[in-house]
Amino acid sequence: MSAPQTFDDRDGYIWMNGGLVPWRNAKVHVLTHAMHYASSVFEGERSYGGKVFKLEEHTERLFYSAVTLDMKIPYTPEQINAVTYETLRANNITDGYVRPMAWRGSEQMGVTAQNAKINVMIACWVWPSYFTIEARLKGIRLQLSQWRRPAPECAPVKAKAAGLYMICTLSKHAAERAGYEDALMLDYRGQVAEATGANVFFVINGEIHTPTPDCFLDGITRRSVIDLAKKRGYKVIERAIMPEEMGKAQECFLTGTAAEVTPVREVGPYTFAPGDVCRTLMSDFDAMVGRVQKSSAA
Hints:
The protein is built from seven helices and 16 strands. Helices cover 25% and strands 29% of the residues. The chain has helices at residues 33-37, 55-68, 77-90, 133-136, 166-177, 220-231, 276-289, and strands spanning 13-16, 19-22, 40-42, 45-48, 51-52, 96-104, 118-126, 140-149, 182-187, 192-195, 199-204, 207-211, 236-239, 251-256, 260-267, 270-271. It is α+β, with helices and mostly antiparallel strands.
């Protein structure tokens, strides 16, 4: 049995600091500032049929995150958008994942890093095969995390910054060891926040409720699914949600670049039955991105 392919040993190309370089040559020094002080920002994007979903919005957020971390990306958004497609073409990928990142280099070591170079890279790889709609509708199980999303006064919560994901990794590891697929995190006030890499929604008596994103990312997929729901005539309510309110919900689902629209059947002691709302929004999302949905009967 062959060893699993690692992310440092692959064929293909990564766009890095102005040009495409062979995948295995896209390296940084061990004293890179980002490795020691988490001074990096990134995006997670998805290409469907050769078109990156909401590319302009993702690039806009990448630049916003960089400014928030006092970093100036040495390219324009238009250049980043163009080389994103250049990278996809170089790797012959039409359906895949795209990861742009900006980070401080190794020119300066210490808390201060005003003289460190801002590096930029874009990588992409083939996305795994999708589940059928029936398999997705079984729903996933979430553990309640012991970690909480920080207050806006404690971290740059509106930036997609690498350092903010440390507690997400810890939460997901703990959940997986306990037999769950992911974890649901509360915020610093004890209100429902998000999963480790996705936003969360609840269906209560036909209405869709979702936490107000005031201390975590207002996901691009989240906003797209809200628009889809409103077009269907669903009432979408953004508000503070306390954990015990999950007991009132009939359905629950996650949204995100990786999750897309993923039903949830369990969050800690609370259970849900993925149903009509989940099925409708999954189908509408697939249609929006141009995916032909396959069922087990096909």
